[in-house]
Structures
1.
Amino acid sequence: MMITRRAVVLLSVLALAACARAEGSSLPERSEVDTAVATREAGSVEEEPPIEYIPADVDPDSIAPIIDYVDALNIALTGDLFALRASANPGCGCLAIADRLAQIFPSQTLIGGHYQLKQIHLISDAGFVKEFEVLVHRSDIEKIDKQSRVSVLWSESQISTIFIIKYNSEVAGGVWQLSDTR
């Protein structure tokens, strides 16, 4: 009896997968260029310019904590602060924004906005400690009070910060971590 049920479930899954493949195969294929052109023509997505400069002569693993932090900032705008708090060592000055956002979300909502990494410039390399001057663009963000519905616009801005990245050999395999900012 148990084998029969499993066989029926397995055959059902295979049949559904075959139907999905058959249905999908009848659709015309679109290249990435076609999709990008169609999206741009529809005006649904605004393309952003790429990062202007990332140092090529620096260990990419040492830059990863900066990229992870900026990604976590974008997630934090939704109200989920976990990734932001986990993106840096406790006590890092860069985590002060998590505390400010935590105070905002109970009574206010943020609409739109995002952070984009624009430039990373190595200013100091002391082996296991590196300092990078980082430029981040923040787009307009609308802050709305949940009760009064009053809206305030935070205008876009360019944020320049020095990120201090340290190598932590105590973690299995070693890892670069965002240690502090100035």
2.
Amino acid sequence: MIESNIPIHIIYASTSGNTEFVMDKVADVWRKNGRKVFLHRSEKTDINILKDNKYFLLATSTWDHGTINPFFERLLVEMRKSNFSGKSATFIGLGDRRYESHYFCTGMTLLKEVWEKSNGKSLGVALTIGREPFDEIIDKLVRDWAEKTLKLFEEN
């Protein structure tokens, strides 16, 4: 069970600001529920954040033909060489169904696969968002997902 003083680290890649916007929303929900949350941009994040902590939200958009956001690539390479046994994460992917819909959120899928192959535990169902996240429908979707996912951390 997560103790309220154990932080949740949100690590994300955002280029256009959409992913960052969603991560801010999730952080707000978790903080309002009494959790300590730290936000980290992936391109500025040292692998030791992942090695030295226990609970994470990992998020990215999908680029080109189904690849991870390039801001996450360096960290992803380091993740492949790490062991995340005893650590838990949940995932968010942003994408655009208008462009090659079969690649929708595959950047996040790749990130989750690397996490699991490195012995990390995945919690719950990943949230996928297929449009810009600036309306009330997405706001409610993110809020509901964040509240539900926080309970999974608490039960873990």
3.
Amino acid sequence: MASKSGQVARINGLLTAWKAYRAALPEPARYCQLKEDLYKVRNAGWNGNPPLAAWPANLVDPDDSVMAAVEHYFLCRCWVGTGQYPAWQMRAMNGIYDAGKMLGASPRHNPTKPTTPITSTQMAFQEAGVRDGEADLRKSGKTAPLVAKPPTYW
């Protein structure tokens, strides 16, 4: 595993590369597509998802915790930036999910693969996704509901 500063630099580089990969899509739809792309990358070969080899090599890191941070950034940016969830609720859901990961109780999306251990880097990129999503929502002139039904995992 890389040093924390090396990991942050790697994640920032991947965020830039993924944004360029889907640059033809408008914001914030781009971030929702990237959320879907990253889910497929992190679950490559499972449940009909393409193998890792189907993705450009510069978009994939062998460290799953790095890829988790990238995926969670885009998930937060999509959900907040499109107004699906208000920022306060996204932060609360992140806190609950992260606490569950710390306790080993967070649900798996892929039953064949455990969730990645939570790291401060992942939490920081979740928050960055929420903040950038807030800016996207403001830019669009749209609003989020006061509260929304949380996602289900089963």
4.
Amino acid sequence: MNRSIFYIMLFILSTVYCSAVSAQSTEYTFVDSDNKKSPKSYQYSVVQTGDNYNFKFDTSPADNKSKLKAGYHVLQAIYKDASINKTHTESYIRERARCYVFDSSFHTYSLCFLPNDFSLKNKGRFWGFVTQVPNWKWLVTRFFLPVLLVYGLVFYPRKNS
């Protein structure tokens, strides 16, 4: 009985330790350096929810240009992809969220800002989510070329025999 309690406690402690070690920092800081004299910094947090990453800023940047820069910073902080274009290629509205599309070498990123229309006390809240979708270059290099290579290695020697 004592041995089983010891193993249960050891399992619980090791689970807690492993989850604490594997958890990454979800607090980030965006510094808007448009004003060279007094750059403003904004704290935000990121939470992964399935394929999406939700972000929430403590305070909202003033204008739309600063919000887009902050969103680009969120994309860079989460995905760490140096090939993400700094300007968005298109924008659209999805379920009342204003979304922007950023392209990169192998992925397309979607950055969506959620509206604050339904909460009077959180009118200044700046939050949203980002997603990553593979584009055609990723599909060609990671899927179609290996399939074509396997097909060639399996069926080509048989036809020439």
